[in-house]
Specification:
five-stranded parallel beta sheet; 6 helices; two-stranded antiparallel sheet; 7 strands; 199 residues; Rossmann fold; alpha/beta; 15% strand
Amino acid sequence: MAAAPPTILVVGDSLSAEYGLKRGTGWVALLERKLAAERLPAQVVNASISGDTTSGGRSRLPTLLEQHRPEVVVIELGANDALRGLPLGMTEANLDQMAGSARKAGARVLLVGMQMPPNYGADYASRFAALYEKVAKSNNAGLVPFLLKGVADAADPTALFQADRIHPKEEAQPLLLGNVWPELKKMLAGGKVSGKRRP
């Protein structure tokens, strides 16, 4: 019986699906290289889809869990919910359901949060940011508060974005990985994730 490397499943939107980038340059691709450099055996499955919402992720997750049987599930969704003006309660419920389903399937969960720009209003922005913390806490999940930290809140907030001012450029991708990596490494290096047993 040989142990297969653990699987990290990333379920996200365009921020994780390399929208507007050369294939292999997004933060999820950089994660694979980081794992190899750190000598942490794990395989990464990127199931991110540009434009996806938490509702889309919730509907896709059961099949992904059954197909890949991941040890870690990274959930990076919610930005498109906000851009479409969907109710915060629905976004929270979807994320909560996804985290709960992943945990029931035996996976550890890392929730990757987003923040809304000031033009959405201070109240909405604070409630949106808070829902990630709430879901993470209720599901005993890891939390990255803001995927775009150091990018969207840089001195020149447009410098690291593509022309649409929504999607980060290639040179911003290491910063995104840098925001995710510390929390993800805890799950992988702390002995809490073990490889699958295969004949």
